[in-house]
Amino acid sequence: MTGRGFSRLRVAARVLLVSLSFSVLSVQTLMxxxxxxxxxxxxxxxxxxxxxxNTVEDRAIAERLGGILVSTGWFxxxxxxxxxxxxxxxxxxxxxxxxxxxxxLAANTQGTVAVVNRIEVRADLRSTFGRAGEESTRLYRQAxxxxxxxxxxxxxxxxxFLVAALIxxxxxxxxxxxxxxxxxxxxVVRAITIPVFLLGIYFVLQVAGLTSLAVxxxxxxxxxxxxIGFAFRDIAENFLASLLLSTRNPFRxxxxxxxxxxxxxxxxxxxxxTVLLTLDGNHVQIPxxxxxxxxxxxxxxxxxxxxxxxxxxxxxxxxxxxxALITQVLRDHPAVLDNPEPLVLVDQLGxxxxxxxxxxxxDSATYSPAKINSxxxxxxxxxxxxxxxxxxxxxxxxxxxxxxPVYRGDRPAAKAPRAPSKKKTPPVDEKAVTxxxxxxRSETREAADRPKGDIPESSENLLKG
Length: 465
Hints:
It is a multi-pass membrane protein. This protein has helices at 3-32, 58-72, 96-107, 125-175, 182-207, 211-231, 233-248, 288-293, 319-332, 369-386, 443-449, and strands spanning 75-83, 86-93, 114-117, 120-121, 256-259, 262-269, 273-278, 283-287, 296-298, 304-313, 343-349, 354-363.
C-alpha cells in the first residue's frame, strides 16, 4: 500500500473516532436532559378532557397545549397554532408513542374541533442511540425486579422434577410385584408422575404472574391429547395393542405361532410390532394392532399336537386289515404318542378308492410334523403293499382317439390267454427314520439354533420368557 493510501486510512480513522465521540456526548446530553417521567413507559393520553377556565378561545387552547408539551420534555421546539378550533402541532418527538400522545392530548382538549399532527419523529443518530439507551435501561430495571421471581420459579421447577422422579421410583418399586407387564407398569408410573410435573409447571407460571397461561396449560392438556390421538391414530392403536398383548400374554418368546397368515417363532414384542422368525429364516414384523385382531394359533402352548393324513385302498381289499396294518405302524413308531391313541378311520368312499383318515398325536416340542408325516406315509405304504392291500389310482377318463372297434357276427379267434405275471414284491423298509427325513427334530429347535442376525427393534421386549 502507498503512502497516500496510509494517509487516507488515517483520515478515515480520525473521522470515525470523532463521530463516535460525538455520538457518546449526544447520548450523555440526552440522558441528562431526560425528565423525571419514566421514558420507557408508553405515554397515555388524559382520560378526561382538558378543561380551560376562561372562555374557550383559539389563543387559550394554543397556550394551554404548548405549555403541556414543553413541560413533558419529550418534544423539541414544540409549537401549537389554533385556527377556528383546528389545532396544528409542529416540532419533533423522540418516538411514535410521544407523537401519538400529543395528538390525543390535543383531541381531548375542550374546544378542539380537529387536530393536524405535524410533529416529526427524530431519526438522527442521537435519537437512535437515545432510544436504545432508554430501552436498555428499561430492560435492566425489569430484570432487576424479576430475578427473585425467576430464581423462585427455577427452584420450584427443580423441586417438582425431583419429587416426580422420587414418586415414580416409589411407584415402580410398589408395582413391580403387582403388575407383571413392564409396558403396563411403565404406563401406570407415567400416569402418576406426569400430573405431579404439570402441577409444578402450574406453580411456576403462577409465580411468574402468568395465571391465564397456567390455566390454559392445564385445560389444554386434554385437548392436546385428543388432537395427538387423531393425528397418530395408527401409532396409538399399535401402542394400546402392545399394552394388551403384554398383559394377556397369548404367546411367549420362542413360541411357534401362526398369526395373520405368517408362521414363525416369536422373537420380540415392542410398542409397534411383533417380530417373528419364519421357518425359512426370515424376520417378519407384524403391527400389534393386526396381531391383536387376528386369530392366533400357538403351536407351543401345549406339549403335544395332532396330525393326520389320508390313504386310499381298493374296494377289493379288506378295510379292517388295512386299518390294523396302519395302526401297527403308528404304534411301533417312537415319535407317535400312545395316549391319546392313534386312530385309522374310514373317511369316505371315493370313486375308485376307500379313503382312510389316519390321526395320531406327537410331541411338537421335539419332533417336526412334516418329517413325522413323511416317515409314517412311507411305512404305511410298505405295510399295506406287503399285506396284499391294493392302492389303486383314482378313476381317470380314458380317451380313444382312433375309436373303439365294433364286431358283428363271427368274432376273430381269440388268442390264447397269457400266463398271469407274478407281481413284484415291493421293497420293505422298516426304518423309522431315513436319511432324507433327517432326525425328525422340530423345526422350532433347529431355527432357534441357527444364527438369528439382528432382530429388528430388539432394544425392548415386552414378552415374558
